[in-house]
Automatic annotation (TrEMBL):
Its EC number is 1.4.3.4. Belongs to the flavin monoamine oxidase family. Residues 14-40 are annotated as: Disordered. It comes from Phaeomonas parva. SUPFAM superfamilies: FAD/NAD(P)-binding domain (SSF51905). It catalyses: a secondary aliphatic amine + O2 + H2O = a primary amine + an aldehyde + H2O2. Pfam families: Amino_oxidase (PF01593). It is an enzyme of class 1 (oxidoreductase). This is monoamine oxidase.
Amino acid sequence: AAAAAWALARLASRGHGRRGRPRAQGTWRERGARGAGTLHAGSGSASGVAFAVMPQLQTADVVVVGGGLSGVVAADELLAGGGREVVVLEGAARLGGRLRTETVTVPLGGAAVEVPYDCGGCWVGATHHGLRALLDELGAALETQHHAGLKVMDLLGGIGTYTGHIPTCLGPGELLDMHRALSEVERLARRVDAGA
């Protein structure tokens, strides 16, 4: 199950919304596997997650575009307030957005070993206090990042491995491109007013 769907299922099973607000009891359910996802509060005490192959024409009080973690949390906050029908539109086949882990095969000690590989925005730093609080509230476990040992890198469809701090599986030009891209991200980040 997608991380976001799992998180919502945990919230529903605990009988309350984020920050301890009471929530109408109900079940989270999944129908189908592909297409747009809708998160809706049913009438009375029913609530749930539904997936449809094609989005059905319906009305809603609020439409949240995107079923990534932010979209799902926004929908959950709106549902916790009660009295609203909330629809989450998601173009992918699953909720969770960039939160995704796949299994990849890497060479290790002369053998091919399958390992979990985080494919998206899955890294949480020590200073990401708000995200850490949300993950704690949802009961999501975090894996400790180890700097020692074998590292795995997605190389445009191929898998590369390396040890140390510099990805030796990249060529000099690729390393330079990566450095330029990271420098640009840092330059843009300095322009953001953190207090805004």
